[in-house]
Amino acid sequence: MDALGIKQGSVVGDIGAGGGYFTFHLAARVGPKGKVYAEDILESEINKVHERAAKEGLTQIVPVLGAKDDPKLPPETLDAILIVNAYHEMREHDAMLGAILRALKPGGLLGIIDAPAKSGEPREKYFERHRIPDQFVRDDAARCGFTFVRQEPGFNPPDNDRNYFFLIFQKPENRSTH
């Protein structure tokens, strides 16, 4: 969250939110004056987030049922978007990145955290392994209008043997998408 400049009052998105692990951490960070759009394409996951947010009185969380090619976020509204362990699942990555670009304010940041793979195989091979070469992500983002900012240290979750890369991209300051 520090790497993406997320603070009290920020408006952020959690794409591929699942049950909301990061959504609720983001909600604590942005506070009641901020907003977290928790997006997933599975209605069952969005319902879980909605129920927990309602139970905990977290009005800053906005569950969003997205589509495979569009997270259905409001245009030029978000300060930052986080995609954790979900980018490798996206088949419509160019359409999705285009929609994400439109949702970010100029200068907004996109953080993608995913499991790495060695490049050299067709993209379809990586879907079944739930991994993706970081170069695919960099190439996709550049093709869709993002500027690469930096690579942060990755993650090694204690509950599995994967390490994850963490790439940060930015929507150019002078790029309005209206």
Tell me what you see in this structure.
By secondary structure, the chain is of the alpha/beta class. It has one domain: 3-Layer(aba) Sandwich (Rossmann fold), CATH 3.40.50. The chain has 5 helices and 7 strands; from the N terminus they run βαβαββαβααββ. The chain has a 7-stranded mixed beta sheet with strand order 3-2-1-4-5-7-6. The chain is globular, with a radius of gyration of 15 Å. The chain starts with 10 loop residues before the first strand and ends in an 8-residue tail after the last strand. The model has no long low-confidence stretch (mean pLDDT 91).
Percent helix, as a range, is 25-40%
Rg, Cα atoms, Å: 15 Å
Structural class: alpha/beta
| Coarse shape | globular
CATH H-level superfamily: Vaccinia Virus protein VP39
Looking at the overall shape, the CATH architecture is 3-Layer(aba) Sandwich
Quick check: average pLDDT?
A: 91
> Low-confidence runs (pLDDT<50, min 5 residues)?
none
| Largest beta sheet: strand ordering | 3-2-1-4-5-7-6
Q: How far do the termini sit from each other?
A: 28 Å
Count of strand segments: 7
Proportion in β-strands: 25-35%
CATH topology assignment: Rossmann fold
Assign the CATH class: Alpha Beta
Q: Characterize the main sheet.
A: 7 strands, mixed
